[in-house]
Amino acid sequence: MIEIKECSKSFGTLLAVNDVSLDIGEREVFGLIGNNGAGKSTLLRMAAGILKQDKGNVRIDDMEVYDNAAAKEKVFYISDECYFPANFTSGDIAAFYQVHYPKFEIQRFSKLMRQFQLDEKQKVSSFSKGMKKQLMMLLGISAGTKYLLCDETFDGLDPVVRQGVKSLLAAEIMGREFTPVLASHSLRELEDICDHVGLLYKGGILLSRELEDMKFHIHRIQCVLKDQKQEQELKRELDILKMEHQGSLILITARGTRTEIMTHIRGKNPLFCEVLPLSLEEIFISETEVAGYEIQNIFF
Question: In which element (H, E) is residue 204 found?
Fold first, then answer.
């Protein structure tokens, strides 16, 4: 488990991470969502032991991670901006990582390179941004670490490769102790793979929830009621996050199970009633609006 407790990090007058507490469980895909400048990269670098927090604690499997070689062996960090030495081929880079990660599987790396149609003998300086992202992901998988921390994971990848990477991560979780942490500014990129999602905003965590729990306990219903009295009754009976009117049609976003919410609404004998699908973005927007944040434009 990765445990981040009351961590803060500043760069001069800029407070990049502000009193963040976060637990990342084992064998789950954790999505760290936030716009550019939210503090995602800084938080990941502290979790990887690259940066030392100004205050708080960062532990991996009960070990302090900063300046701790045993803890760092458990983590592979992929930066948003990948640096590669001049004239190095993919094979050269794999050999470098093999020295630093005892569980690195060089044959596995070669197999994955062929699977993703990348040439081990080609100089990485000639790779596109998307190819470099693929290379780093394959290096991270081959390193055999327990934790893989990825900054802007799918940036630059085409849809086919993106799906291939997601399938690779899912297979890895099924086969061994493995926990990927995927940071992105886009909810759409992560909602079909993550088990748990945390929203980082202006250096702080707004909310951190199990994805299925969020989807199970927030629903949107559109209905037509007979009179306004019934609408007022529903406001008292339901945990309503948002209520909108489009003529006689009422759009209700409420917390609770689908059965609970529909039982109350059907009890009013509505003239019309149906459940509408909610995307992860819409769920997050509803939650953050209730918390007093107007951030609906961040992820678009």
Answer: strand 204-210
Q: What is the pTM of this model?
A: 0.81
Can you say how many angstroms the Cα of residue 125 is from the centroid of all Cα atoms in its chain?
A: 29
- Statement: 214-290 belongs to CATH 3.30.70.260: yes
- Measured distance CA(190)–CA(184) in Å, rounded: 8
225 with 194: CB under 8 angstroms?
A: no
Domains of the chain by residue range: 2-202, 214-290
2-202: CATH class: alpha beta
Burial class (CB in 10 A: 0-12, 13-18, 19+), 94: buried
The alpha carbons of the chain give a radius of gyration, in whole angstroms, of 23
Classify the C-alpha dihedral 130-47-20-13 as positive or negative.
negative
Q: Are 38 and 82 in contact (CB under 8 A)?
A: no
Convert the pLDDT of each residue in 7-63 to its tens digit. Answer: 999 998 888 998 989 899 888 899 988 777 778 899 999 999 999 999 999 999 999
Nearest CA-CA partner of 202 in 22, 40, 2: 40
Q: Are strands 196-201 and 204-210 parallel, antiparallel or unpaired?
A: antiparallel
Distance in angstroms (rounded) separating the CA atoms of residues 286 and 292: 10
- How far is residue 203's CA from residue 56's CA, in Å, rounded to a whole number? 14
